[in-house]
């Protein structure tokens, strides 16, 4: 299973690293981090934290392509969209985390497809032709999308089960001790205190840049 | 709030990136990734994925120090232990994820303290003088330790609440949409199917390297 995770300027690190930590432990997994240019990539908090091992031009063909979210993700036509369309033509799975679904949709890959996104950007999916579904993980054919940031871990475990079976996925889950116990119940707009939901809605530009 | 996250050869990426994604969003947070040598650091899966911005010698003083886990973490005496003892002398919080607690304990910082670790390495804590507690997050004074890999996210949200208050922590939680929904209930040895628990116990060397 060859996996390409695309990085770009202002990517959200956990969107990429959560799925990598799960999918990279599949038997025979081969993960490549790719970007327009190989080398260090700046995250949304301004850190030169992640490294792309290969440029898009050098990226090997992959069975699974994943687009993480970030601040101001590449939703304009350009090399990332061209590359994604070519990668999608031969992929078994085309996937995203957070606003990565807007990138896939803007590249024309989710037209008429059910998809999710960060709760603050679900309403942007229809403008790119996708059908928004407010679930944590949405699978429509070979297109699998996750909600915001941390949802990439749940997406990856779901995919691990589909790709290698429940036992393999559960072995990975136990290996990374993914038995989440958040100290607060504020992880979705349905559960968080209303003033916090309102604050983030009013500052959407600051959080996702669009 | 100045935060130093220490990286080392064969670190587990999610152990570092989960807490960074939470703590880095605290108001006024300043995160530094540091390592014996500045530059790319190899993760436990062999990827040159993460970058240390500064060497231990260059690392600024920090209020919070975090030691992520990894494959064969630095439990032998050496520069990492020396640095941790000096950092701990002025820190407000000294923290770890996964087998990072073994590193803190081996450096002499958890003697007589309650601490947690990856479920497979809890039994190693007493040999370094710490008192093992099989909880996801354990706080004893200024020492806060998390269980395996993904538990670093829960640790960081707990710390965010203590440092900046529940509202700030909940705002971060909603921003990263941390409303976990694992597709399997296999994240702890109490919940996972017994054959999977046994398999990992028998292959502990492969998973944590000690």
Give a quick precis of the structure.
The structure is a homodimer of 210-residue chains. With 210 residues, the first copy, chain A, is of the alpha/beta class.
Protein described:
The structure is a homodimer of 210-residue chains. With 210 residues, the first copy, chain A, is α/β, with parallel strands linked by helices. Helices cover 32% and strands 20% of the residues of chain A. In chain A, the strands form three sheets. A seven-stranded mixed sheet of chain A has the order 5-2-1-6-7-11-10, with helices on both faces. In chain A, a hairpin with a 2-residue loop joins strand 10 (137-140) and strand 11. In chain A, helix 1 (13-23) packs parallel to helix 4 and helix 4 (151-164) packs antiparallel against helix 5. The longest helix of chain A has 14 residues, at 151-164. The mean pLDDT of chain A is 96. The interface between A and B is large, with 63 and 63 residues.
């Amino acid at each position: 299973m060859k996996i390409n995770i695309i990085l770009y300027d202002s990517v959200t690190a956990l969107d990429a690293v959560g799925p990598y930590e799960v999918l990279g432990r599949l038997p025979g997994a081969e993960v490549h981090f790719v970007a327009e240019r190989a080398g260090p990539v700046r995250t949304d908090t301004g850190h030169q934290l992640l490294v792309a091992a290969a440029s898009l031009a050098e990226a090997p063909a992959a069975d699974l392509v994943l687009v993480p979210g970030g601040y101001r993700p590449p939703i304009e036509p350009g090399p990332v969209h061209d590359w994604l369309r070519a990668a999608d033509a031969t992929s078994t799975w085309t996937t995203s985390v957070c606003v990565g679904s807007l990138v896939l949709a803007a590249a024309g890959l989710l037209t008429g497809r059910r998809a999710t996104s960060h709760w603050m950007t679900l309403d942007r999916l229809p403008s790119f032709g996708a059908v928004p579904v407010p679930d944590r993980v949405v699978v429509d054919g070979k297109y699998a999308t996750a909600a915001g940031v941390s949802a990439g871990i749940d997406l990856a475990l779901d995919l691990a089960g589909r790709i290698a079976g429940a036992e393999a996925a559960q072995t990975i889950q136990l290996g990374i001790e993914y038995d989440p116990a958040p100290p607060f119940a504020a992880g979705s707009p349905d559960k968080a205190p209303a003033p916090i939901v309102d604050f983030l809605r009013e500052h959407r530009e600051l959080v996702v840049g669009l």
